[in-house]
Specification:
Blueprint lengths: L1 H35 L20 E2 L4 E4 L1 H14 L2 E5 L3 H30 L7 H9 L3 H7 L1 H8 L5 H9 L4 H17 L1 E2 L2 H5 L6 E5 L5 E4 L6 E2 H16 L4 H14 L4 E3 L1 H13 L5 E4 L4 E3 L7 H45 L7 H31 L7 H5 L5 H11 L1 H18 L4 H17 L7 H25 L6 H31 L4 H7 L5 H9 L1 H21 L3 H10 L27 H21 L4 H9 L7 H11 L19 H17 L6 H17 L10 H18 L9 H6 L7 H15 L1 H8 L6
Parallel strand pairs: 3-5, 4-7
Antiparallel strand pairs: 1-10, 2-9, 3-8, 5-6
Length: about 800
């Protein structure tokens, strides 16, 4: 039942993984197509006004072309036909009439009040002396009236001179004068007063719209001459008032005219904002003017001078072609990009590097690099176009800038993390897309294919930071050579263009190295990759986790160092990564730090803790060191590749010692063999397979008695065959030839570790020791053993405390 569930879960996981891969491929295709959208259709070069036509051009289909000049002329005419709007304030006279009435009534009320009070107090008898004194102290009517002058002016709304006010006082602010002022104002406002008569008369030919502010009614007025201007209205006060004021004396007439002129103000004003708004609405309602061009109509004849109208027709025809083919071009380009991606996926990734793309994280990394540097090409192309159009005073041409784009950093980054085999097709993809962006320039394609490929080649086996700079300098010099060849091919060696091309090409090479050095740590963090530079740091035996291993589990530390040396030598023989293999060998058993005394290599007192444990418990403790090692690797941020090797270093191998022990106690039928196997997975890479083999061989060689070369060779062969037969190497790329070379390498290392040494006797015995059989070494070794046995008691008193705790 569990097996069925596991199989179902595995199928679901694989199906989900395939969906993710397809999603990544389609997303990259869509983004690439979006970047290339402005360059999808190959545009025919359009003429400029004044150019000579090189060939006849006819319309292939019927189409409409907008006559912008005619449309604009119609809109201007429509705006000119809009009548100017003037606002008529019909309530202005009523307002002024109210002000005049209020001002005069207030003064007359004061006069009437004082006159009434004075009459009531008058007696037929002559006033006494006391009454005369009191009257002298009270203000007169005139004084009270003059005190009211500011209030009168405020109510009236205009300033009144002292002379005019004095005349009004003499006339007791009579109601007749008030009526004359109202009548004159009524006649003048009824006719209409405008602010600027000269501007007003300019609308005489069309007329105006007179809009009543109060009623919102509009009237079209064409006779504009009868309206008064402001100055004219003031002059008409005397004319209009002549028949009304003829019975008054000259002084009063002038006073009435003066006050009335002060009250005159325009009651017809221009509404500029409403007029402009109506003009805009009218222009917006005008439909564009189109001219129909029929199929076969000659748009341009050979030898003709291109005019504005002909250029407009050519542009419309070109735009129509683009509109018709854009959708098809988008689909075609998307299919081409998807085919290129799938081809590279099948040839370079699935066939040569199956493990590389087995992880969707790697696909996402490759997609991210492609999109990033494709975006860089798109932005750079826009910059080049801007320089070409707006910076004509630059000493260099816009095409020179394209040589300075550090696109080679994309291939360098891919090579750094995924290898040269993948970096080359990525270089092709970036170069093809960049060439399309730069208007299908063949020289751009050649330039970026060559420099990206060589940049990736120089980034192989990068183990030092200075390799970035070295590769950048080499690339800069290569760029200069390629640019020179391109200029010779194009025959473009005029002026200082070649020097500027060299300068930008050189900067592009240096920039590629700098960009790669800058983004490499970011990619390590974002995707959990481990570069050779990081591996060199981890190979330092002073790393904190290795120091802990040396102090807390010295036997495991010594074992790990030897395993590291063995796999490094073997990796060189089979084409694997020696540095990665060595580092994985150093860290594959760090999980034993948690329980070091449960592993035989760390037991120094001869007491085995497993003697008191059940075999099943002992196997659990041994298996747990893999999980503990993974946790420690994550804690110390050793990288995913180290974590994977820790998991895979024991594969699903059987802990045979405790399985056999448990079988003797309970019987094989009562046991589940899977309980005595490591959880796996099996080794997935050459390096992980090497670590597994070296771990088994080194541990077994420690207990080998009399480790002669033949015995070591037999042990190595036996153990490798056992691991191979158990199927632990099924998922990695180790071949039989690789296993043969690995065995040879292991034999060489183990021979060096377990070679025989001569046991040297005391100095005096060395002088007299001679072999009778012609082999002084054998005889010397025999004497050494005899002397050692005889003097063991003496030497014990001097050495027994050394090395003891």
């Amino acid at each position: 039942m569990n097996i069925g569930k596991n199989i179902s879960a595995l199928k679901l996981s694989l199906a989900t993984s395939d969906y993710v891969r397809w999603a990544i491929l389609i997303a990259v295709t869509a983004i690439f197509t979006l970047f290339l959208y402005p360059n999808l259709v190959i545009k025919e070069p359009l003429y400029k006004i004044g150019d000579v036509a090189e060939r006849d051009i006819k319309a292939t289909k019927d189409f409409l072309i907008e006559d912008y000049d005619a449309t604009e002329a119609n809109r201007r005419q429509a705006m000119e036909n809009v009548l100017t709007v003037y606002d008529y304030n019909s309530t202005l006279f009523s307002k002024l009439n109210q002000q005049i009435n209020t001002a005069f009534e207030n003064i007359r009320a004061v006069i009437d009040t004082e006159n009434t009070t004075g009459t009531d107090e008058t007696d037929e008898n002559e006033p006494s002396e006391t009454d005369s004194t009191t009257d002298a102290q009270q203000p007169s009517v005139s004084d009270l009236v003059w005190k009211k002058k500011p209030e009168f002016e405020e109510k009236l709304g205009v300033a009144v001179s002292d002379g005019a006010f004095g005349i009004l006082e003499n006339e007791a602010f009579s109601q007749n004068i008030e009526s004359f002022i109202d009548k004159i104002l009524s006649d003048i406002f009824e006719n209409g007063v405008v602010t600027n008569k000269e501007l007003f008369l300019k609308e005489m030919n069309k007329g105006i719209i007179l809009r009543d502010i109060k009623t919102k009614t509009e009237t079209v007025v064409t006779n504009l001459k009868h309206f008064y201007g402001l100055d004219q209205a003031k002059a008409m006060v005397r004319v209009v008032g002549q028949p009304l004021l003829q019975d008054l004396n000259y002084t009063v007439r002038n006073m009435v005219v003066d006050v009335t002129q002060g009250l005159i103000q325009p009651n017809i004003t221009l509404n500029r904002s409403e007029t402009e708004e109506r003009k805009k609405r009218e222009a917006a309602e005008i439909e564009p003017v189109f001219n129909k061009i029929k199929a076969g109509e000659m748009l341009l004849r050979e030898g003709e001078i291109v005019t504005k109208i002909q250029l407009m027709k050519l542009s419309a025809s070109q735009t129509r072609k683009i509109d018709e083919h854009t959708l098809a071009s988008c689909m075609g380009l998307a299919m081409l990009i998807l085919c290129i991606l799938l081809t590279n996926y099948i040839l370079y990734m699935h066939h040569h590097r199956p493990n590389l793309l087995g992880d969707n994280k790697n696909l996402l990394f490759i997609a991210t690099v492609l999109i990033t540097f494709f975006l860089m090409a798109r932005v750079s192309a826009s910059l080049v176009e801007s320089v070409a159009h707006y910076n004509t005073q630059m000493p260099f041409s816009a095409s020179s800038i394209s040589y300075g784009i550090p696109l080679a950093a994309g291939a360098m980054t891919i090579c750094l993390f995924a290898g040269l085999e993948l970096a080359i097709p990525v270089s092709m993809l970036i170069a093809v897309g960049t060439a399309i962006i730069f208007q299908n320039r063949f020289d751009i394609f050649i330039y970026f294919v060559l420099n990206s490929s060589m940049a990736a080649f120089w980034m192989q086996s990068c183990r030092e930071r200075k390799v970035f700079i070295k590769a950048g300098v080499k690339l800069a010099l290569l760029n200069v050579i390629i640019v020179t060849a391109i200029n010779l091919y194009l025959g473009d060696l005029t002026g200082f263009k070649l020097l500027w091309d060299w300068a930008f090409a050189f900067m592009g090479g240096i920039g590629a190295g700098i960009v790669t050095a800058g983004i490499a740590p970011l990619i390590e963090i974002a995707f959990g990759y481990t570069t050779d530079i990081k591996l060199l740091e981890l190979a330092n035996l002073d790393q904190p986790i290795l120091r802990r291993l040396m102090i807390e589990a010295p036997g495991t530390y010594h074992h790990s160092v030897i395993v590291g040396s063995m796999v490094e030598a073997a990796a060189s023989e089979i084409g694997a990564n020696p540095l990665l293999a060595k580092v994985c060998g150093y860290y594959h058993d760090i999980g034993k730090i948690s329980k070091p005394l449960y592993f035989i290599e760390n037991q120094t007192d001869g007491i085995n803790k497993h003697d008191k444990l059940a075999p099943s418990m002992s196997s659990l403790i041994l298996i747990s060191h893999v999980r503990d090692g993974v946790d420690m690797a994550r804690k110390y941020k050793l990288g995913q590749i180290i974590i994977d090797t820790i998991k895979q270093s024991h594969g699903t191998s059987l802990i045979r010692y405790f399985y056999d022990k448990a079988a003797r106690i309970k019987g094989e039928d009562a046991l589940n063999i899977d309980d005595f196997r490591y959880p796996g997975p099996k080794p997935q890479t050459k390096e992980a397979g090497l670590v597994m083999l070296a771990d088994v061989v080194e541990a077994a060689s420690r207990v080998l008695r009399n480790p002669t070369p033949s015995r070591i060779q037999g042990l190595v062969q036996q153990l490798i065959n056992r691991v191979f037969s158990d199927g632990q190497l099924d998922d990695c790329e180790l071949t039989l030839k690789n296993l043969n070379n690995i065995a040879k390498s292991f034999n060489k290392i183990l021979h060096g570790i377990h070679h025989h040494r001569i046991e040297y006797p005391e100095k005096a015995l060395l002088k007299n020791a001679k072999g009778k059989d012609g082999s002084p070494d054998r005889q010397q070794a025999k004497k050494v053993r005899d002397i050692s046995e005889k003097n063991s008691a003496k030497s014990q008193s001097h050495l027994k405390r050394l090395g003891q705790y």
